[in-house]
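Budget justification aside, the reviewers requested a transparent look at the raw inputs and outputs of the sequence design task funded under Objective 1. We therefore reproduce one unedited record. The lines immediately below are the structure tokens for a 92-residue chain.
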């Protein structure tokens, strides 16, 4: 199944990048460059969702509308998606 959440990307003063997911509590990632930060963000998003799905009474948060997010001048937003296999042996 495909999961898509907005990631807010900030370039830091040292040229590295930080990504945070406003809808996924405490889900963040960093990278030396944008490509690494986005890869790390996908892995963080996947881990967060898989952990939530493993809970007995899980509830995934609604996705924020990109137009409703408040950004700082050094931030951009991008939809970040991950595919997670929900059942073993099931190919999407």
């Amino acid at each position: 199944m495909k999961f898509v959440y907005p990631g807010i990307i900030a370039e830091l003063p040292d040229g590295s990048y930080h990504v945070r997911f406003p809808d996924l509590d405490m889900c963040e990632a960093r990278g030396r460059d944008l490509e690494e930060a986005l890869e790390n963000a996908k892995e963080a998003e996947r881990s967060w969702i898989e952990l939530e799905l493993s809970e007995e009474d899980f509830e995934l948060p609604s996705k924020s509308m990109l137009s409703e997010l408040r950004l700082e001048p050094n931030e951009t937003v991008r939809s970040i998606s991950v595919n997670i296999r929900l059942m073993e042996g099931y190919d999407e």
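The beta strands are 2-11, 17-20, 28-31, 75-83. The radius of gyration is 14 Å. Computational costs for records of this kind are itemized in the attached budget.
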